[in-house]
Protein 1
Amino acid sequence: MEARGMEARGYDAVLLLGFGGPEGQDDVIPFLRNVTRGRGVPESRLETVATHYRASGGVSPVNAQNRALRDALQAELAGRGTVVPVYWGNRNWAPYLGDVVAEAVAAGHSRLLALTTSAYSSYSSCRQYRDDLAEARGATLPGDAVCIDAVRPYFDHPGFVTPFVLGVRSALAEFERQGLAAAELHVLFTTHSIPQADAERSGPRERSFGAGGAYEAQHRAVAEVVMAAVAAAQARGSAAVVAEGGREGVAVTAGAAPAWSLVFQSRSGPPGMPWLKPDVNDAITVLAEAGTRAVVVVPIGFISDHMEVTWDLDTEAAATAAAHDMEFTRVSTPGLHPVFVAGLVDLLLERLTPAVPAERCALTALGPWPDACPAGCCEKGPARGAEHPAASVAGVTGG
């Protein structure tokens, strides 16, 4: 394939980097062993988490989603006049990252621009991916023969945020049609929990983000942007109704936006180790006891509907809500939404044409995030010990 459009910065291929997941019953335990290697996790614990996959035929949705995303990126790039191969590799299952980089190099591509399937900053969601890229580069050819750069964390890029705004608006409109008032609803923005120590070390050392580090601050900032956009849309809609109804003397007031919270899910690790909380199930229980009638769950930490979305939210969190006679709806992740795909290509193309940082798209005051991680950014916290293997399907890593 003739490559054109990336020569200005020397990139000759794109690499989509995912977490990986099993694609059949025989893959489940080997996959979980890959993820938990070196952590001393007993086979009995692996079997416990394996039931999540086995309930879906042993298949994680994530590989099919990444295949489709690879193809969508390829098409979007070509549509903008940039024709380059888009490779896809995983950290923990085939196609393995090292094999894919070797394949790209064998095909004559030595300068790759990588896009990871995680939008936020922490050791697991950013630093570890970049370390994997460096390892794959070093294992392929010695010295500087191969270059692999990565796009910046894109938590507050419009392409990532907009599908969540649309999803929340749609969910709230549906509950309104059912006769539920805003005061009876609650929006829960959820993401994968991580150890408190890892959260505190997330982001550059020279910036202060609070107890939850950059990881929690980024999620909270995005949730605020989503709810502000939803409230603005509701206000515009109410104003339009007022203007139209005013001719008939009808008074219409703008509806209030529901309350919202940031919660966490899929906690793993020793019981005594502090992790970010509250857990989504605990939050649902507390809301139900306070009289909330419905929850809108927004998986703001995830780019696609992989196992921890379909199991931990669609199965477990939904069951918790049902146990309290509470209405439950879950907003879709960006997935293959055209706005998301276009936004990812924007991120790739911004590395081809150097721009002043202020010109880069960012919807929060925290961004735009830098391309390269400074020294000490997103360091790993103290040793976690033998973690529960549920970390294998973490949305923070994309399983």
Protein 2
Amino acid sequence: MLSSALASVVTSIPSPPISYIDLGPLRIHFYALCIIAGIVVATLMTNHRLTKRGAEPWVVIDIALLAVPLAIIGARIFHVLTHPGFYFGEGTDIWAVFRIWEGGIAIFGALIGGAVGAWLGCRWTGVRFWTFADALAPGLLLAQAIGRFGNWFNQELFGWPTDLPWGLEIDPENTAIPEGLPEGTLFHPTFLYEVIWNVLGVIFLLWIGNRLRLQWGRLFALYLIWYSLGRIVWESIRIDPSEIYLGLRTNVWAAILGVVVGIAILVVQRRHLGVEPSPYMPGRERGDGDALHSEDPTDFVDVSEPPASEVIHHQAAATSTAAAK
């Protein structure tokens, strides 16, 4: 028993001693740096993938200008609504709602807000929404892996107590530790579980996306299913407070919904055969940020190939010319 305890202490994962640094009057939280790093990585990966599809280089920036702020707002709103006891009621500080640098954002809220922003950005730039979503999927999953290190710095969102060698050390003063546990108790490093799962997901999405040429939103659907399946497990062993409905935490229900939505996208998008004709919407030119506001329904016909009647006309003209010669 003693040797097992010693092994756990020796091989356990320590938590960082600090979660921020002060540069003069400016306090920089590592949590925020992890989020920013994830956004940068996702932007670079998405730009590379969109450009390979034929989109204008860095058009992703125009989309991100709307998607990122709405994703952050949605993430914070979702967290606050699913943890009302933290911010509302006697003894709470309602202004903490706005202190996002202290932690507390929800990826499912980010997905909702970010999807709205991305849709608006795609309408603005002319990029197909599903083309953008598929290009984003691997980078988004990698960004989530990077962002989870912010939870490590903040010593938050850890799991049940464990005697496994990779248990996570948490400062005894941390108020998130349940009462009655002996000092030195180790906890499941749920942040690390999710990091590993997400990185494996990035590899899987890149592999299957290239192998099967998944388009029309199908790769994004697989992202939703992959991430949500993992989140169901990690969320189920976390000990941080959460609203419970029918015996399940709110984020478990959100993850279940994520799997359902992913499957629904796969089913609905089966109607699209072959590859997308262009990363841009019909009637939109590469690099043209202005929408075509026409009531003519032909503006919304896919013009990647000429109509059959036009092909026949040109063939007939060519035959007549040859005969005349």
Protein 3
Amino acid sequence: MSELSVRDFYDELAHDYHLMFRDWDASMAYQAEVLGELVRQSLGAGPHTVLDCSCGIGTQAIGLALAGHQVVGSDLSPVAAARAAAEAAARGSRLPAAAADMRQLPFREKSFDVVLCADNSLPHLLSGQDLRAALLGMRRVLRDDGLLMITVRAYDEARRTRRTATPPQVSETCDGQVITFQLWHWHEDGERYDLEHFQLIPAENTWHVRVRRSTYWALTTSQLTEFVAEAGFTNITWHSPASSGYYQPVLTAQRVPSAQ
């Protein structure tokens, strides 16, 4: 992963990220309900201490905080992290948020009940070395038997079909419809791809076209399962959108207790 390029991608997107949602606050509530239920099934009702280590502008973190959990956010993008904290405050909640690389989490060992890495953030890590560093760091800050939650795209099918684009998403704003879509350019290895993220934003009888670029590793379920197990997690379970109600596949796993 090129830290600078990924950070730039999200620094630039932070102002417009909410425009991808038809109703951002409704999405916060829906995602918190689904993810909160997965937490409850593993750890009980709570409230729980949660680290959202790819919090972005706060979609999952704010929803979980409003649901009563004690949430801390971190993100590679300082612009996104700052907006997450501000958006939480605007909704009467508190979300401490900091700029931090998920490969070098600046938190104490065993300080969280849950570590969340959502919105297909982990596949920005393009090598096994970086992926291991991130997962080991997530394990380090989890308490014994603490819960790891990762949400990613359904890459098994995407790898088979070599998809080249996503369907346009249309959301309503006070100024009109915002159109968002992606183009995918696959690398020769068949596993990684360069993404072009397009937003068409209405402005006085014309469109502002915003294009951001980044690179992803299209990790299959078996690949990610293997990395998570190698990092010291057990009870690894995949929850499909059909079973969980979430918009992406969700991997849950628990930290193996440290040897006494």
Protein 4
Amino acid sequence: MKSPVVAVIGGGPAGLMAAGQAASCGAAVVLLEKMPTPGRKLCITGKGRCNITNVAELPDFLEHFGAGGRFLHQPFARFFTPALLAFFENLGLPVVVERGGRVFPQSGQARDVLRILQGWVHRAGVRVRTGAPVSRLRIRGQRVIGVVLDNGEKVSCDAVVIATGGASYPGTGSTGDGYRLARDTGHLLVAPRPALVPLETEMDTTPLAGLSLRNVQVRLLVKGKKKRQLFGEMAFTRSGVSGPVILTLSGAAVDGLRAGQQVSLVVDLKPALDEPRLDARLLRDFSARAREPLSSVLRGLLPRELVGICLAQTGLVPEKPAAQVRAKERRRLKSWLKNFRLEISGYRPLKEAIVTAGGVDTREADPRTMQSKRVAGLYFAGEVLDIQGDTGGYNLQAAFSTGWLAGRSAAGTTG
């Protein structure tokens, strides 16, 4: 029987995995990448270190995708973290597990992950064509028969895997091409929008830019109701806030803002102390430093950059000796420390987002194969689908798992 011909569009993690798996299953594979080299976005993931996956157990892992977790259950059942780690180990890539179960290459270099994948794809016999953007798919009788490149060249094939990524970091080649290809073939799209993106605040944060807060607890409120709460690290930027906790909360914040709802962040700056213990701490500090001005005493409780904001928002007098702080003033201070509120006014553009929310509606793809339910022989993998997870290696695992399944499924196409 003639080997099926598979065209993979996109040379990111999902595309490389799909291409290599299809070729390993006996298909003749061509990988079409529009950029001069594949894997540009992979090289900037994890701040250039490439957070490959996470060692969380499957139930916990799926929770990091929200509603998308249900769709990913099938791909993860076929190819999950242990299999991915074994895959890289067999290719000679040692890894390390860090805080929060995050997995990185031992070298700390994302380029080593890309080098390993490129070598594997080459040895599998994949023909990689760079500078080859795809303008449209060729469909006959609700079956894909090939693709047409921007230069008009036609590439015939039995199956196509769309693994073009989302629309964040367009300089790496992720410009939403897969959305257009899917829409042109009649697929429904969930509106693409930023996810894992810094948020903008009503308060001017320019004086705080560069300040990081570790071990804080942040509540996200939408229309005054708690949507989600996380513990960890956040940071201030010139336009608002960022950092791991903020990025993880940003998806729900963006959706709230897009719906015209009030979105707020409430930061507990002293989560290790409940209110009685925090009150006792304040009394001790004020007693021990009774003659010092309040602004000086607060330096023992807060980063220098936050002292002025605290005083302004609580209405406390900076020069007042600590011994003269009244009980009602101490209550205001205690409340502020436990409920530092930031009103969210917007979010940074899609080009600054780590991933894109939205994409091809998962109801349009079969999670057992990643094949389109509308067009035979057409498969989707990675961020082009409406699946997005938290930071911590979850999104790359989803890319590798869906790519693995799409590639192997496409290789089973008989034309």
